[in-house]
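Tokens in:
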């Protein structure tokens, strides 16, 4: 599903976001964000999240404790559109993070990584630190 569709589904700002990571051992960890929306292309598909965040995965998108890892308010970055705050490069094109996402300064939550060895680091740091432990990821939207 592309960002245009996500924007259309969430533009009323009455949706929540469910994120889960299933590990190779069968364990599924999740985090639920009470409010979720994505702006239009005009605003570079800016991410909006609001709490509370609850679950077993740990909040790595909203209340992270450090400014440079908060993803709410970030625009979507790709290999060709650098919208992150990383001063020395494009997080979406960097080694270990190749793929589109709402990067801040190469944040600690990134579910769109490549599955090839060595190309996906820190899917959800510090809970999940390596793609080799990940069996699958899910992001689901629920309208209120």
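Residues out:
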């Amino acid at each position: 599903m592309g960002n245009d569709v996500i924007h259309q589904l969430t533009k009323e700002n009455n949706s929540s976001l469910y994120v889960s990571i299933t590990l190779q051992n069968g364990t599924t960890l999740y985090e639920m964000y009470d409010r979720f929306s994505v702006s239009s292309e005009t605003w570079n598909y800016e991410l909006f999240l609001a709490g509370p965040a609850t679950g077993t995965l740990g909040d790595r998108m909203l209340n992270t404790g450090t400014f440079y890892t908060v993803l709410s308010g970030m625009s979507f970055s790709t290999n060709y559109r650098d919208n992150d705050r990383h001063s020395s490069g494009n997080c979406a094109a960097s080694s270990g993070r190749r793929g589109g996402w709402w990067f801040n300064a190469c944040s600690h939550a990134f579910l769109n990584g490549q599955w090839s060895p060595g190309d996906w680091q820190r899917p959800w740091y510090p809970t999940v630190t390596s793609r080799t432990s990940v069996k699958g990821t899910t992001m689901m939207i629920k309208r209120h």
